Amino acid sequence: MSRVIGHRGARSIAPENTLASIRAAGGCGADLVEVDVRLTKDGFLVVIHDASVDRTTDGSGKVEEMALEEIRALDAGQGERVPTLAEAVRLAEDLDLGIVVEMKEEGLEDLVVRELEGRRAIVTSFFHGSVREVKELGGLKTGIIISSLPIDPVDLALSAKADSIFPQLTNPNLFIAARRAGVEVYPWTINDPDEVRWLNRLGAAGIVTDDPCGVREAADDPVTNVRAGECQYYPCHHFEGQDCTFCFCPLYPCKDPELGRFIRSRRGKRLWSCVDCTLVHRPSVARYLSDHPAATTEELKRVDRAGGD
User: Fold this and answer.
1) What are the GP-PDE domain coordinates in residue numbering (predicted)?
2) For position 307, what pLDDT does the model report?
3) DSSP state of 309
4) Of the listed 7, 237, 238, 292, which one is catalytic?
């Protein structure tokens, strides 16, 4: 079971980063709502994603060159206005929603901390130095955003003194390392219920989605332990950091056609499935993999052919 974070509110059903979108996320049963913030020319934090108003409103111009009054005069879709962060925070509280605030530029740290102090909030950014500064300014929860899969994303989070990672790309090793370090993982932007269930299985604390209504049921599906006596592989290899709730192959996704295959989710997404593979559970292979954690699937298949057990 993971938390559902409405991305820019619930942008699949309402104009993004508006009060209507926040209300829609609340109506879908989201646990938190994510919004983006930028600074106007006259020093107000407004909820908008892009550096300009061109894409999301009927106006044009850069946010940093416009006063709040000018931005508020624009239509952000379906008659909605661009809200201030203060308005978004108040509405989220009224709806009993937590709020995730992404700083879209540097230099907002002090203003954001003052606005969110004492609130149920997470402050995030691609600017990891800003995330660290927010943590040093106050007691708010923070998260780094990453769009690639660096060598050690958990080290990046710890360097920024962050409580969480918001990754666009994930793999099982990220979840293993994050659990060991006490860092939460919130993948984005996940709109496929089957992918939500898989990420639950890996140990996601929550998922960021454009469609909180569409994934709410999948996010609530429980991830249960398999009792030892019922597991077909017991006693298994028990790699370090692995337990039965988050049982997965350390090589996933190997994409080896002898060991698994691509399948289509209900929504047509192409996913790698190795549910029928037993390679790493075989004793000789498990022993070899424990001693050689960087082994490839080809090496393990050779060990299996030679092992005889």
Assistant:
1) 2-219
2) 76
3) -
4) 7
Decide if 7 is catalytic.
Answer: yes
Contact (Cβ atoms closer than 8 angstroms) between residue 9 and residue 20: yes
pTM over 0.90: no
Is residue 309 within 8 Å of residue 279, measured between CB atoms?
Answer: no
**Closest by CA position to 84, among listed 134, 13, 19:** 19
Task: For residue 192, give the 3-state DSSP assignment.
Answer: coil
- Whose tokens are 């660096």? That residue is 150
Helix (H) or strand (E) holding 219: helix 212-220
Contact criterion met (CB below 8 Å) for 208 and 186: yes
Q: Collapsing DSSP states into helix, strand and coil, what is residue 299?
A: helix
Within 8 A by CB and 6+ apart from 83, the residues are 17, 18, 19, 46, 47, 91
pLDDT tens digit sequence for 87-133: 999 999 999 999 999 999 999 999 999 999 999 999 999 999 999 99
Mean pLDDT of the region 163-167: 98
Query: Is 128 annotated as catalytic?
Result: no
Which tokens go with 253? Answer: 């996704």
The residue from 49, 237, 281, 292 that is catalytic is 49
For 111-150, b where at least 16 C-beta lie within 10 A, e where not — what string?
Answer: bbbebbeeeebbbbbbbbebbbbbbeebebbbbbbbeeee
Is the backbone peptide bond immediately before 245 cis, with ω within 30 degrees of 0?
no
* Domains along the chain with CATH numbers: 3-220 (3.20.20.190), 228-307 (no CATH)
Residue type, 261: R
> How far is residue 240 from each of residues 122, 130, 293, measured CA to CA in Å?
30, 34, 11
DSSP 152-186: -HHHHHHHTT-SEEEESS--HHHHHHHHHHT-EE-
Query: By C-alpha distance, which of 7, 99, 107, 21 is closest to 64?
Result: 107
Distance of CA 191 to the CA centre of its chain: 11
Side chain identity, residue 273: S
